[in-house]
Write a structure and sequence with these properties.
It is a single chain. This protein is 35% helix and 21% strand. The chain is of the alpha+beta class. The strands form four sheets. Strands 1-5-6-12-11-10-7-9-8 form a nine-stranded mixed β-sheet. It starts with 12 loop residues before the first helix and ends in a 7-residue tail after the last helix.
Length: 633
Amino acid sequence: MKTTPWGFRDILPEEAQAREEIAQTVAGCFKSHGYLPVETPLLEDKSSLDRGGRITDTPFKLFDDDGRLLVVRPDNTLPIVRLVSTRLRDAALPLRLRYEAPLVRAQPRNSGAARQFTQLGFELIGEGGDAGDVEMVSLVIESLQALGLTSWRIVFGSVRPFMELLARCGDASLSSDVLSLVHANNLVDLDARLAQSSIGEPLRRAISELPRLHGGIEALDRVDELAVLAGIEEPLTGELRALVKRLEQRFTKDGEGASAAPDAVDAQVGKAGSALPSSAAPFGLDGALSFDFSIMNSFDYYTGLVLKVYAGNLPDPVGTGGRYDSAFDGVFPELDRVPAAGFAFSLERLEGACTASEDARDASADHAVARAMEEPLRIAVPKGSLNAGTIAALEAVGLDVSGLRDPGRHLIIHARDLRGEMAGGEVPEGGTTTGSESEGEGASATARLTGPSIGDVEFIIVRATDAPAFVAGGGADCGFCGRDSLIEADLGLLELVDMHYGACRFIEAEPADRAGAADRAYARRGCLRVATKYPRIASAWYESRGIAADIVTLHGNIELGPIVGMTDRIVDITATGTTLRENNLVITGELMECTARFFVNPGRARLDARVRVLADRLAAYAAARGRGVEPLC
């Protein structure tokens, strides 16, 4: 008897009944506000979807008997855009449509992630401005309340400020690269790409800082400040401010909707005596609403407001949505533009949020592990060559690393943030005082830390190559590994800080005594054979150069590949070149440079203020280290 394909699973009656009850509850909320059901085909003509927006992750494609390329839908909004554009052009506006429909999306193989999801969504077509935004958000809140979820967070962002900044670049290639990096959550390479550009410093700084902004109303103030510095006089946050005002009027005037539980991390971060900084403070509904401008939903049809909803202590969003006002341009008679907005819950993640309190350690393919904010901040610390640099960085930013120096066979090390203790004048072992002496030339960076305490922490000791999987799966909140491990994992983690240690180069090499043999083989057979343990990096490099390459994945002693005649060349890392020289290999190409990075689960970054506190300290440490001066964290 065969099993289901990877990323798909059967659902038995008990779970199916629970899912049915959730779906009926949510559909009942949508229906009570006049949203009508629609259904679209599971298969769509790819070209018709491409006209509505970029489709990037369609793992299942096939050709119809008439030669059309069909896809199994990875999204439900674009099929509804097609439906409305072809079947409902003469309908009265606004249109309120709802759906319950499965979709499939690409996932990295062997990541343990599901590839099929069921969405419970709605589309509001023809109602624009803050009225449409408030209707969308209010319906989301009502649905969460109807499900009995008492701990949830809605995080808002907007595509418009970023797109306005990119429009000022005057460089299409730069704009495309920047947008791709932000979509990929790679803020480290974003800064590197901006540094290579010729745009002015105010615009460069605005583009770099915008996706890092998060918090309350003050985040909107900073967005507008950056815009002015970049030469944009018109405020870019008007829609978000109008939304805030309308939500406050609707939900706080009489207390309606204030059932969201206060954010538990407020108490956790302040445990050592310091309150959250204002930049981390949410703005309404008992701390259930906040802003984060790193939110750039994966489909590029969004034009303004975007939002993600979190619940049940899950780091993965239980729902996403936003405004896509350009999708219906020219569709409706005599109307140049028809505003539209939509939102979709993931049925699987709603189920996980509803049952998280029953089994907080449920190992599910549908969502990452749920962890309560009261638990210690969990950090993935790599073994091997990056271990010493990571320990030094963690110690420099104030964390107790004594247990990491000789962990024995322990895989989890319990520790704490020493900053709170020093704030009271207590000096940790090996530290210095916090008085005037700490301002001297050789003072410990730890003693000069400022800001809120992180409280208790847990270090989990992992291979560097495994760190992304632990963070993506919710086993850790954040971690450290090399740039190469993040590329190979391809798990959409938020890369925040280049740590400037563990430097190495990715190179292509071949035996010195067979110089030219690989080129002759390529000319004869039309492809190179390359040994590597970095197949994604190697494949992308050869593809970018227009070279066909057969990748042979090995896990150690890569140099043997061409030496024994199994491959023509290798792609590997080198720091000093000693191993290459000792095995008579010479470098034939340079792929990229690699250093250690601090990265986080995007959901944890939006939900847990301690993650941002640690990131800020590490950024200060890394910046000082990069300048060759003593870090003053």
